[in-house]
Write a structure and sequence with these properties.
single chain; mainly alpha; 4 domains; 3-stranded mixed β-sheet; two-stranded antiparallel ribbon; about 45% helix; about 5% strand; binds zinc ion
Length: about 500
């Protein structure tokens, strides 16, 4: 493909191809990804004929041939004679947005209807699984390992509309509860296990973390995309003080929106300070001089002033810049590493050093996700050695969400006989069937005898407390007690 790149560059140089760019954008004529090729040119007849000629040259030189059935040409809405222009290339025309691997690529906010491909995919999968007679645990695993992964892929590429995410969530929740009553809300299920969920991740939070990942790619630079975005939107200004405006793309607005989060999660490490704006980049303990001192005077704020002004021979020399003397303490705390190839940002969310300083999706997700109080009772649910079905039964019991006959009637579900299914004497409730019924009493008595504690009570919390209070009997005993409790339920 290097031959193709040479031919394109030559055609641009001779003026036979005009790249798509405006003002000071760096001209990008084409992008190559694996065996896919995207070309961006002005659709003049001469330009299209030149491109067709280049494709023929490539074919005769390397044997690489364009698959015309899989290729598409897209024109802007202002372009006329689209069919005639498409015929020059011999490629079918299609309408924007471009779809790559099913994902719509658009500079505007993706609309719900643009993302119907994802909703259709989820719908197809859950309809196929419904006939498989899967357990509750099996359905959770499929959502986690298939649907969440595909949704994650989409979220890495575009900012999915909230409406689309809600529709995917609804399909997953209905599949999980087989279209029936939702005993536990989807929001509750999408929490970490220690916080009362089943460990699914909410797509809305994955969406936010994915947007932060994209922002990191922009901030850390070093890619064609980051350079292009910087040149188009930041220009000669500074990213950290850039004001959003209507000319900014959705992606850049998203990047700007996350500046506050980034200030708390990144740190500047300097080689010589030449790539760091002295006043505006947040290089002093996650703050900029502007944050600490307020606006500089006209004399202080000389354009292009970098931290190299106060670094000499790999050490801080704040006295070499007289206006920063009072900030000496702050400045000396910033890091200089002369071994680096250039100044760089390192990813270091508070209390979660990543070691390499590279972005980590997990720590980013933990940084932005909503947290809930930890509950140690859940360690009695997710203990090893238990079938998933048993774990989920204890989980629902802890939440008080098992569908006993009293709860079914309270939801308006017709229940012919409200009496306990075991003794047929008392009304069936969670409290009765698990703790008061004769059979339940016998089970807990037997467990009490084997474990050597009084493993009975009026609710699951009482029994958990008794077992936890006896934890001093050793790890093996505690593990056995947890399994016995769960198995009894
Ligand atoms: Zn009973």
């Amino acid at each position: 493909m290097e031959y193709f790149t040479c031919l394109m560059d030559l055609a641009v140089h001779r003026g036979r191809l005009v790249p798509l760019f405006r003002r000071m954008d760096p001209p990008v004529t084409h992008l190559i990804y694996a065996d896919d090729l995207l070309v961006f040119i002005q659709p003049s007849t001469e330009g299209l004929q030149t491109l067709a000629g280049i494709m023929e040259d490539l074919k005769s030189f390397s044997g690489l041939q364009m698959n015309r059935d899989k290729s598409r040409v897209y024109f802007s809405s202002r372009c006329s004679q689209k069919e005639e222009r498409a015929d020059v290339l011999g490629i079918a025309r299609s309408d924007l947005p471009v779809r790559y691997l099913g994902v719509p690529l658009t500079v505007n906010y993706a609309r719900d209807q643009d993302c119907h491909g994802l909703v259709e995919y989820v719908q197809r999968r859950v309809e196929g699984w419904q006939a498989a007679g899967l357990s509750f645990g099996g359905r959770i695993e499929l959502i986690r390992s298939v649907i969440s992964v595909v949704a994650h892929f989409w979220l890495q590429s575009i900012l999915l509309p909230v409406a689309t995410i809600r529709r995917v969530d609804r399909l997953c929740a209905d599949f999980l509860w087989r279209g029936g009553m939702h005993a536990v809300s989807w929001e509750q299920l999408c929490r970490p296990r220690k916080e009362g969920g089943v460990g699914l991740r909410p797509l809305l939070e994955i969406r936010e973390a994915s947007a932060l990942k994209l922002s990191w790619r922009f901030i850390s630079g070093g890619s064609l995309w980051a350079d292009w975005m910087h040149s188009r939107y930041v220009k000669q200004g500074n990213f950290w003080t850039c004001t959003p405006d209507n000319n900014h793309s959705v992606t850049f607005k998203t990047v700007l929106r996350h500046r506050g989060v980034f200030k708390s999660a990144i740190r500047r490490v300097m080689k010589d300070g030449s790539g760091t704006d002295l006043w505006r980049d947040p290089w002093i303990d996650r703050r900029s001089l502007l944050d600490i001192r307020g606006s500089p005077t006209h004399q202080e704020d000389r354009r292009g002033l970098t931290c190299s002004r106060i670094i000499r021979d790999g050490e801080w020399r704040p006295e070499s810049y007289r206006y920063t003397e009072e900030l000496g303490g702050f400045i000396m705390s910033a890091i200089i590493d002369p071994a680096l190839p250039a100044d760089r940002w390192i990813w270091e969310p508070t209390g979660a050093s990543t070691g390499t300083g590279e972005f980590q999706f997990r720590s980013c997700y933990n940084l932005i996700r909503r947290t809930f109080p930890l509950c140690s009772d859940y360690e009695f649910v997710w203990c090893k050695g238990l079938a998933r079905k048993t774990q989920l039964c204890v989980y629902k019991l802890l939440l008080g969400r098992l569908l006993t006959r009293d709860r079914l009637s309270s939801f308006g579900v017709p229940v012919p006989d409200p009496k306990c299914v075991l003794c047929c004497l008392e009304p069936e409730s969670i409290k009765h069937i698990f703790f008061e019924c004769n059979l339940a009493w016998q089970i807990w008595s037997e467990q009490s005898r084997v474990l050597g504690v009084c493993a009975s009570g009026k609710c699951i919390g009482d029994i958990i407390s008794v077992i936890r209070d006896s934890r001093g009997r050793g790890q093996d005993w505690f593990r056995t007690a947890r399994v016995r409790l769960a198995a009894s339920v």
